[in-house]
Design goal:
Helix content: 55-70%
Number of domains: 2
CATH topology of the largest domain: Serine Threonine Protein Phosphatase 5, Tetratricopeptide repeat
Number of helices: 24
Strand order of the largest sheet: 1-2
Shape: globular
Distance between the termini: 63 Å
Strand content: under 5%
Length: 447
C-alpha cells in the first residue's frame, strides 16, 4: 500500500508506480497535452492497479465521444473486479454508473467519496467536470464549499482547487469571490489554464472586455503545454473582440487560434466537443452580424455528418445542426435529429436531457437554418427554462438564446423576444443593449 500526493492510501505495486500515478493526476488537473503519455507511463508500471482501470475509463469518458464508450465500459468492469480500498471501489462504482448514463449516481458517489476524503483530487475534479456538463453550477459550488475547510496551500493540487472554486462561483454569480480565487491560483501557477479561464468568465459576465483581452493576451505564452483548453481560452478572447466589433480580430483568432487546423494539437482532436462548440457558436454569431465567414462552416459540417448518431455531448448537438444547416445539408441534419430522438428514448441522465432540452434545441437550430423562424420559436420555447442542463457556461449557452431571439424577431414575435431579453437581463449584470449579441434586437423591443 502506498499513498498519493495528498496522503491518501492507493493500492499500487511500487513507489515508482505511485509517482507515476501522481504525475498522471497532476497532468489531468493541469489540462496538459502530455496527460495521455503520463497515463500510459502509469499503466505500464502497474496495469492491474484499481486506479489504472479507473483512470483509463475516466479519461475515455471525458471525451464525450461514443467511440470511446466500449473502452470506458471495459475499464469500468476491470475496475469493479480489481477491488482495492473502499475509496477505490467507490471510484470504480462511480465510473461504472457514468458509463451506464447514470451521471446522477456518479455524482452522488463522488460526493460520498469527498465526504470521507475531501482532499481526493480525482473525485473532486471529475465531480466538477460532470456537474458542469449537466449545467449544475450550484452543485459545483456546493462541492467547493463542503471541501473548503480541508484544502490549503500545503496540498499539491491547491491551485487547481482554487481554479475550480473560481469557475464554480462564477457560474452561480459570486463574481468577486470567483475572481479572487482565480487570480490567486494564477499568481501561484501562471500556467493554470482553468484559473485563467474562470477569471475570463468573470470578466465576460461583467462586461470588462478590454480587461479580458489584456488578461488572456498576457497569459497566452504560458499555455504551450496545455491541451485543447487553450483553444477555448482563445475563443474567450475572440468573444471580447466580438463585443468590441472587431470582427477581423475574431476571424484571425478563429483561423490561427481556436480553429487552427494546421496545428498538430487540432489535427489530433479535430472534432473534440469543446472545439466544435467554440467554432460553430462563433460562426453563428458572426453570421447574424452579417459577417461573411467564407467556407469555414464546411469542415465543421463534414465532421458533423461523420458524427451522426453520437449523442454523448448534448450541448454539442445543436452546434452540429448549425453547421449542417449553414451548408444546406438539411437531409443530414434531419438524420441527426432522428438520432437525437432515438437517444432520448432511454432512461439515463443524458437521455432525459436529450428529450427535455436537446431535441428542442436541435429542432430550433434546423428551423432557423431553413428560415422557419416561427417554427424555431415554437420548438425551443418549451425548453427555455431547462436549456442549462445541456451543459456549457452562461457564455456558451448565450448562442442558443441568440438563436431564439433572432428567430422571434424575424417571425415578428415581439412578446417572445421580450421574454428572452428579460431572461438575459436577469442573469447577467450587463444589460442586453450593452452586449453585441443582443444589442440590435434590444434596441427594437422594449423589455
Amino acid at each position: 500500500m502506498h499513498t498519493d500526493a495528498h496522503g491518501l492510501p492507493v493500492t499500487l505495486a511500487s513507489a515508482e508506480a505511485a509517482c507515476a500515478f501522481d504525475a498522471a493526476i497532476a497532468a489531468y488537473m493541469a489540462y496538459r497535452q502530455d496527460t495521455p503519455a503520463k497515463l500510459k507511463a502509469f499503466l505500464a508500471l502497474d496495469p492491474g492497479a484499481p486506479f489504472a482501470a479507473i483512470l483509463r475509463g475516466s479519461f475515455a469518458m471525458l471525451t464525450y465521444n461514443a467511440g470511446a464508450l466500449p473502452s470506458a465500459r471495459k475499464s469500468a468492469a476491470l475496475a469493479l473486479a480489481a477491488g482495492g480500498t473502499p475509496r477505490e471501489r467507490a471510484h470504480a462504482a462511480a465510473l461504472d454508473a457514468w458509463t451506464r448514463d447514470d451521471s446522477d449516481q456518479a455524482l452522488a458517489i463522488w460526493e460520498l467519496i469527498l465526504a470521507e476524503h475531501p482532499t481526493d483530487a480525482l473525485a473532486f475534479r471529475l465531480h466538477h467536470f460532470v456537474a458542469f456538463w449537466l449545467g449544475r453550477g450550484p452543485q459545483m459550488a456546493a462541492a467547493v464549499e463542503r471541501t473548503a475547510p480541508h484544502w490549503g496551500s500545503d496540498l499539491a493540487h491547491w491551485p487547481s482547487w482554487l481554479a475550480c472554486r473560481c469557475f464554480a462561483f462564477e457560474e452561480v454569480g459570486r463574481y468577486a469571490e470567483a475572481e479572487t480565487a482565480g487570480r490567486q491560483a494564477v499568481d501561484l501557477v501562471p500556467t493554470d489554464v482553468w484559473a485563467a479561464h474562470g477569471v475570463a468568465h468573470v470578466l465576460e459576465m461583467q462586461g470588462r472586455r478590454s480587461e479580458g483581452i489584456t488578461w488572456l493576451a498576457a497569459l497566452e505564452p504560458n499555455w504551450e503545454q496545455a491541451n485543447s483548453i487553450r483553444h477555448h481560452l482563445l475563443w474567450h478572447r475572440a468573444l471580447f473582440h466580438f463585443e468590441h466589433g472587431d470582427t477581423a480580430q475574431v476571424l484571425g483568432l478563429y483561423d490561427r487560434g481556436f480553429r487552427d487546423l494546421a496545428s498538430p494539437l487540432t489535427e489530433a482532436l479535430p472534432d473534440m466537443f469543446v472545439d466544435v462548440q467554440n467554432a460553430a457558436s462563433m460562426l453563428f454569431r458572426l453570421g447574424l452580424q452579417g459577417v461573411d465567414v467564407g467556407n469555414r462552416w464546411v469542415e465543421l459540417a463534414d465532421k458533423a455528418e461523420a458524427r451522426i448518431g453520437d449523442t454523448q455531448s448534448a450541448f454539442t448537438l445543436p452546434h452540429w445542426v448549425m453547421a449542417l444547416g449553414a451548408t444546406g445539408r438539411f437531409q443530414q441534419a434531419s438524420r441527426l435529429l432522428d438520432a437525437v430522438a432515438e437517444g432520448a428514448q432511454g432512461t439515463g441522465t443524458n437521455a432525459r436531457i436529450l428529450a427535455r432540452s436537446g431535441l428542442p434545441a436541435c429542432r430550433a437550430a434546423l428551423h432557423h437554418a431553413r428560415g422557419e423562424h416561427a417554427e424555431a420559436v415554437a420548438a425551443m420555447r418549451p425548453a427555455l427554462s431547462t436549456m442549462g442542463e445541456l451543459g456549457g457556461s452562461h457564455a456558451q449557452q448565450s448562442v442558443l438564446e441568440l438563436l431564439f431571439l433572432d428567430s422571434a424577431m424575424k417571425a415578428g414575435m415581439a412578446a417572445e423576444a421580450r421574454a428572452l431579453l428579460e431572461r438575459a437581463a436577469g442573469r447577467c449584470p450587463v444589460p442586453p443593449e450593452r452586449r453585441a449579441i443582443y444589442r440590435h434586437h434590444a434596441g427594437q423591443v422594449a423589455y
